[in-house]
Amino acid sequence: MNESEKEIQSELDLLDNLIKNYYKQLEKNGDEKVKLGDFLKMIELRRKLSPENSEQKKFWKMINKIRHDNLKSEAKNNETKLQDKNEK
Known about the structure:
This protein is an all-alpha fold. It has 2 domains: about 1-50; about 55-88. Helix content is about 85%, strand content about 0%. The radius of gyration is 22 Å and the shape is elongated. It starts with a helix and ends with a helix.
């Protein structure tokens, strides 16, 4: 597991703990500050962030590759512009 995967896992663990604590508060049903809608949003966020789905992994790898390629291209364009400016 690389560093980014470890970081994601620790964030997911934090979200899992938050969901568990919020659920306990919902069970008590005495606190008006606790809302079912907020709890459901947390569950949905957890599902979206879960790296378990291989299709999601492929998608994020593709996004990272596009981002990386775009940054390379942008850096190359900036270097060319700087050279052109220096030649003038």
